[in-house]
Write a structure and sequence with these properties.
Length: 458
């Protein structure tokens, strides 16, 4: 008899095919990425690292021939070493980085490893406020790093941009060791040059080096495609990212670093910014992780290979075009958008101001018709994380499926209809009961359109 797990996977395939994924941090990977993830590489232990020497300048054929690493703790690494070398070399090429670590299991692990590579307990980090669009790992009190380090939050200004003046003031008032730009709900392209200048001023004031870090998990695919500024070009020392959002790879993390690439097994490494690539390698393994997931690293290598192709640039441009069209169509229909619109793949709508409804009931109501997004707090949101007044949506996944401007108009129409039907409801069950007919009709419309755009790999 078929294991129930596979039945449920089949049901998930149906859910993904018959609905539209609007969560901005999700995407659909290609069949080759899926195949690498489901490969025999999952059988292998590979603690340690492949050889790095001269890696970024090498043609891929040479990487495949290269002698095996002395940096592994298990035998049998012939293939794994070469696969991980490909992942590192391709990541460096994509982001113009000196070095890459493809082992972090997630973006959260990547961030923790960077903190651990550079900071001592009690050190101060200046990072974006979670309530203004920052990320849990940037200082939320529920995280381990917030118990070890002291986070000082900066916010956004009235235009929805980063509050650079506040950032500068805080950097000069507090003896910080790390300045972080990163977010999971922010619609503008940061002024990385200004941030680097703030770091330089703070270094002069405090008389020590300050690590400049960017967490670009959301926009990494746009950066890789060259249609979004790359923080590494502006003096940032480290960029972390997940590999599954706009970058369209497997679920996982990645750290790009600038500086000297050294031996990850050498005992003493001076804590200087120039040594950050090696400090980060040591912080990932053995600092914070054990055996790398080589099947996932292989899938990352495949996805990076895809992102290096010209078609990926076209894809990334379409993501932003679709997001801008969707934002404009929503605004025409009465949606109030944070920051007035978007410069990237992501939209944040204030449902309270727009239709006097809360984000959570709207999220659930859209789920009923096959549109998936997430409720999200707005700056200063009184509803908190569980009953926020905003919703966050984006276009990476639907763009992968081939939806274009015509379909953005349709999505905006459905969203308006549901928002209006939701008005006055506190409980989703009441909404579902009272509007069963409308929900059924809209569900069919969404399904019909969705099935015209197959999910890759299904
Ligand atoms: N969960 C991710 C997001 O949705 O933005 C961030 O970790």
């Amino acid at each position: 008899m078929k294991d129930l797990v596979f039945d449920l996977i089949d049901q998930e395939k149906v859910r993904q095919s018959e609905g539209l994924e609007l969560i901005p941090s999700e995407n659909y990977v290609s069949k080759p990425v899926l195949e690498a993830m489901g490969s025999v590489l999952t059988n292998k232990y590979s603690e340690g690292y492949p050889n790095f020497d001269g890696l970024t300048d090498w043609p891929e054929e040479k990487i495949a021939e290269e002698k095996l690493s002395n940096y592994r703790y298990y035998g049998g690494q012939t293939n794994v070493d070469r696969i991980e070398r490909l992942a590192i070399a391709r990541a460096c090429k994509l982001f113009n980085a000196d070095h890459a670590n493809a082992q972090p299991h997630s973006g959260a692990n990547a961030n923790e490893a960077v903190y651990y590579s550079w900071l001592n307990p009690g050190d101060q980090i200046l990072a974006m406020n979670l309530g203004h669009g920052g990320h849990l790992t940037h200082g939320s009190p529920v995280t381990r790093s917030a118990k070890i380090y002291k986070f000082i939050p900066y916010g956004t200004d009235k235009n929805g941009d980063l509050d650079y003046d506040e950032m500068e003031r805080l950097a000069l008032e507090n003896d910080i060791k790390l300045l972080l730009v990163g977010y999971s709900a922010f619609m503008k392209i940061p002024n990385f040059k200004r941030v680097a200048e703030i770091r330089d001023k703070a270094e002069k004031k405090w008389g020590h080096e300050i690590l400049l870090m960017a967490d670009m998990a959301h926009v990494a695919g746009l950066i890789a495609a060259g249609i979004h500024d790359n923080p590494l070009k502006f003096g940032f020392n480290v960029m972390t990212t997940t590999t599954h959002k706009t970058l369209r790879g497997p679920r996982g993390g990645l750290i790009l670093t600038m500086g000297n690439v050294g031996s990850p097994i050498k005992k003493v490494e001076e804590k200087t910014l120039a040594n950050i690539p090696t400090l980060v390698d040591k912080a990932v393994f053995p600092g914070t992780q054990g055996g790398p997931l080589e099947h996932i690293i292989a899938a990352k290598a495949v996805a990076f290979g895809e992102a290096l192709k010209p078609e990926f640039k076209t894809y990334a441009k379409k993501i932003v075009k679709n997001a801008k069209t969707l934002a404009e169509e929503l605004k025409k229909r009465g949606f109030v958008l944070q920051g007035g619109g978007t410069e990237n793949h992501l939209i944040l709508a204030d449902m309270k101001k727009s239709f006097n409804i809360n984000g959570k009931i709207y999220e659930k109501a859209l789920d009923l018709i096959g549109l998936t997004l997430n409720a999200n707090a707005l700056p200063g949101d009184k509803g908190g994380a569980f009953k926020p007044n905003g919703v966050r949506l984006g276009t990476p996944a639907i763009t992968t499926r081939g939806l274009g401007e015509k379909e953005m108009v349709k999505i905006a129409e459905w969203m308006e209809k549901i928002a209006k039907l939701c008005q006055g409801y506190e409980k989703i069950r009441d909404f579902e009961k009272d509007h069963a007919e409308e929900i059924k009709t809209l569900r069919e419309e969404v399904k019909t359109l969705s099935l015209k755009f197959p999910v890759p790999g299904i």
